[in-house]
Amino acid sequence: MKTLYLDCFAGIAGDMLVGALFELVPDADRFRAELSKMTRLSAEDYGIAMEKGSKGGISGTHFHVSTHEHHPHRGLKEIEEIITTSTLSSRIQREAMRAFALLAEAEAKVHGTTPDKIHFHEVGAIDSILDIVGAFILIDQLEWPRVLSSTINVGSGTVQCAHGILPVPAPATEILLHGLPVCSLGEPMERTTPTGALLARCLADAFCPLPEGTIAASGYGLGTRDSDLPNVLRVLLMDSAADGTESMGVERDRVTLLESNIDDMNPQDFELAAERLFEEGALDVWLETIAMKKGRPGVKLCCLCPPGKSGALSLSVLRHTTTLGVRRTALDRTKLCYKIEEIATSLGALRVKTAFIGIEKNGKNPLRRTPEYDDLKRLAKEQGLSLPEVRNRVLREIE
Predict the structure, then answer these.
(1) Which residue, 169, 219, 360, 379, could crosslink 20 as a Cys pair with Cβ 3.0–4.6 Å?
(2) 3-class DSSP assignment, residue 372
(3) Is pLDDT larger for residue 70 or for residue 47?
(4) Residues 326 and 352 reside in one and the same domain
(5) Which DSSP letter does residue 192 get?
(6) What integer pLDDT is reported at residue 125 of this predicted model?
(7) pTM exceeds cut of 0.85
(8) pLDDT for the residue numbered 331
(9) How many whole angstroms separate alpha carbon 332 and alpha carbon 6?
């Protein structure tokens, strides 16, 4: 699996991310051609340059936008028109609009209003629009790899914004970083901008130390400040199949494990809690019997989920159980390829899950075929048969 790792040891900003990603796909003409698809932004109003340089002895690329704008106050609707009237791919448009919607929600919360009434200041300027859309363009050129990120260095001190001098991280940045791991290292300065926090939130599937794998390429995006830490963002393009399993025909992905230890909940209530978790996108939910302090019996509620749903599902655990906390662990998972199809049998139609070793997926030798339990139960009730009778007959017919 191709993985992009954002090493935010010195923070992250939109121009730094674009510069770093550009070093992985350094085709300036292709990049300019993609940006020009936003026809609502006149090419006469801005220019872009990819400038090689160095910070703290580290060479990299600075993405620089020159513009003649003086008072850019665009609203969400205006930005939506710029993006949706473009000829950019539907996925780039969708991801960019999702990012600006999140930004509008953060700004609205800061100012005590609604997203539709927000007029962006710095982030509504052409250079910030190009940072955000440009980052998605380059991710698209990398064929949308899985994205992981380190802890984000936000910096410290104060920053000059459109509304005056504010503490670091600025209020909108801080809201966008809710639920994400942060730290403060180095001399006082703003190290993570609103645009950088936004892109990290939208792109990263999980936040973790450098994952196991082989490094295929790296890129460094340069900021504009000088400090004790090099003002750079490093991105690493990695092949995470270091153990060779993908070449054997199985798949790998990243999941999050949520866990809570509970000793004061009515056992009957776990069923509804699990149902809610499945409804909200859990991959699996199970209970484990544990011994808690003072020898009291307890239950560990476990929920496996996609990284992007871990926040919402953590809240669901807190809402529907008596626990006061949820632990999160990022995990690598190896899994079989499979497909689910509906098959007609003498007892009626039912769904069957067929698992393959990937190299056999298009062949005629599945590893195993398993009827869905809910369908077996339904057929048993409809036909007046026992569950083992239905299972045995179906298995004979689908082999």
Answers:
(1) 219
(2) coil
(3) 47
(4) no
(5) B
(6) 76
(7) no
(8) 86
(9) 17
